[in-house]
Amino acid sequence: MAEREERQNLLDEYESLPRPRDDNGSSRPMSAICDPSRLPHRIVVLIFMCFLGFGSYFCYDNPAALQTQVLQDMNLNTSKFMQLYAWYSWPNVILCFLGGFLLDRVFGIRLGTVIFSLFVCAGQVIFAMGALFNAFWLMEVGRFVFGIGGESLAVAQNTYAVNWFKGKELNLVFGLQLSMARLGSTVNMNIMGWVYSRVQSMLVSTGHTTLGASLMIASATCIFSLICALVLGFLDKRAEKILNKEQGKTGEVIKLTDVKDFSLSLWLIFIICVAYYVAIFPFIGLGQVFFIEKFNFSPAEARAVNSIVYIISAPASPVLGFLVDKTGKNIIWVLCAVCSTLAAHMMLAFTFWNPWIAMSLLGVSYSLLACALWPMVAFVVPEHQLGTAYGFMQSIQNLGLALIAMAAGAILDSRGYLFLEVFFSACICLALIAVVMLYFVDFLRGGELNLSASARAKLQKSSASDSE
Predict the structure, then answer these.
(1) What value, to the nearest 5°, has the Cα angle with vertex 421 and ends 431 and 369?
(2) What is the pTM of this model?
(3) Range of the domain at 285
């Protein structure tokens, strides 16, 4: 009898729990795909979430995919060509600090995502119009506008992910988003040359008109991502109404005064980040002509080998991230990534070996470094300073990319590809020196950055016990 009463009480409590309400406020059951609390609906949201940044990543490397055509049709030298990448990076030297604030305090995640998607669309259209009218300065304006939206849109994408997925799901979602971003870059590298040739065969006039029309077609991917932003905003607003939840927040707290408290270990991490990435992205931006000139590749073959870094990164990043999580030893993994990247650049510079070998090695190294380097910031910075630390890291990374993009173009025009590869190798050597210094600094301070995963778990457990 008592057991029956207890069971009835539990049933009464269950019945009294709040139920998700449909759009009209009724509490009748919804189908799984319409219920924001159910997995099928969240999978639909995840699809739109992944495609949110597809257009941005697709169009970011349009200049690299059409390097030969841009140089010829716009009558540019390499130094001016690389300005297209520099202008993308300049606004993000500042926006890395402001993007999260604008999303949290000014626009909100839904409106902010739409606004940044509009910047991406507008920037790509202006970029294409500059080619159509043979006005390179207008192309530079387009890349600047595109840059305003591009990096901040990635922040919004991550915020949506945190708002809709929790715990172990979140790691998978971040991996899927990264894979979709790399897919966008890969498709761009391999399809834009074909689009250009098709447009050229259809138009009577060629040159900058063909280039502008091709870039305008590429802007369709940005419009598609804008549609995804609008649908995501609608679904998030609907979920807020049904589940009575708040808008997502980035969680970033930026205080520039925290910079003075940064440790030597953190500054070495910054140096590694800048010195490493400036030898990756500018090289990919200039890679197509390099493979054509040195290895006598066709344009299609050159685009394919130039995209291998992104192709490998898509599946490798989640796998390598899992490996680093399970083993720890972050500094050792970063050291391996930097050394293998140096080996790849040396192969490209001083040998005529098949470049697929070096570029495949570069793709694995690039993915490994991202998985091992960025989490180390959280190990050396208090939680309340994480927003400032990551914002500052992205800011100086964009500053380095802007400056090195211009320097790489100037070096290529005056000295050629061999000297440029030596320059990139020197940047990697600087990163290598910083990694070795970081190892010894960390060793003298107790070796927390290079702990194994099990040792780090024990340390975190004891720290939690002490704080309690």
Answers:
(1) 35
(2) 0.86
(3) 258-455
